[in-house]
Structures are given as structure tokens and as C-alpha cells.
Amino acid sequence: MEADWTTEAPAKDRRVRRSRAALMRAAVELVGARDSAAVPVSDIAEAADVSRQVLYQQFGDRDALVLEAALDLVRRELLDDLPDDERASMLALARHFAAHRRFYRALLTGSSAFALNKALTGLFLPLNRQHIAQLLGRRLDARGVEDLAAFLTGGAAAVVNTWVIEGPEPLDPEEFTGRLMRIRTVVTAMITKERR
Prior knowledge:
Layout: H1 14-34, H2 41-48, H3 52-59, H4 62-77, H5 86-99, H6 101-108, H7 113-136, H8 142-166, H9 173-192
Helix pairs in contact: 1-2, 1-3, 1-4, 1-6, 3-4, 4-7, 5-9, 7-8
């Protein structure tokens, strides 16, 4: 059975869902294969076996399609089944980005880098906000929780982005998870330390 390539609310028409899924799958495959987000719309439409008009109707343009494909990939493959255990969830994140390195590297080094970072921050920020609120309880007000969650989410994104873009070939998810766990230990100790 073929994977469902969209986590969007069910469309009214199965054909729309199928063509959206095919376009996102084609975008991920072609961008990754070519190491560039500048894949011609006609190539993506052809690989998805739809017309260019369908691509424009459903996504507006190539950049919107590629961004939505990245977000859908993260939702489906990472966030939908994220383990509760912190190390396991960090390892799942590392494995996901290593498995799709060429795709993400193309996006993170292209014109859609800012939009991708902003959108991914929107996906991960609620998780970090919840974790910080649980960790610090009443020691921070809502604004402080929000600020710290944004700060830590952005910092983590910078570390992951650098690893995806500049890390050695092949990426080692286990080693990277160890690095993330060391950072987590230090940061947790710093933010939970009582003021003297």
C-alpha cells in the first residue's frame, strides 16, 4: 500500500489528494536527486503525472510546493510517531534528517531556507514550549516560557541545519544524538538551577 503523502485535512476530491501527494512525492525525490530546489515545475509535474496547471492550482508555485512537501514529510515521518523518550525522539529526528539529507540540504542552502526554518520552528516550538513549561513549572511566566522555547528551538535548528549542510558524509545519527543529549543536559542544568 502506498504511503499517504499529505497530512492535510481530507480534500473533497480523492483526485486532488492523489495529485497533491504525487506532486509532493515528486518534489522530494527530484530536489533530493538534483541537490537543488530549483527543479523546473515541468519536471515535477511530469514526474507526478499531472499537468503544470494542476501544480499551480494546488500550490501556487514551486517554492510553495517544495515547502509544503518538506513540512508534510516532517509531520508524517517524524512528528506523527515521535517517541515519548527524549533520547529516542532526538535519535528519530537525527535519522529523519540524515535519511532526507540531500532534500533538506537543497532547501536549506536555497532561496526557501528562511521559509523552511520559520515553518519548521512553527512545528517544533509547541513541543519545546510544553517541555519548558513542565520543566520550570511556575518559575517562568507565559512570556518567559515562550521566549525560552523560541530561543531553544532556534538554537536547536541552527545545530541541526549545520549538521545537515556541513556534516561529514554519511551523517551519523547516533553520534549526532549524543551531541544533542550533551547539549540538552547542559541547558537543562542551567535553566533549572535555582538562583542564589
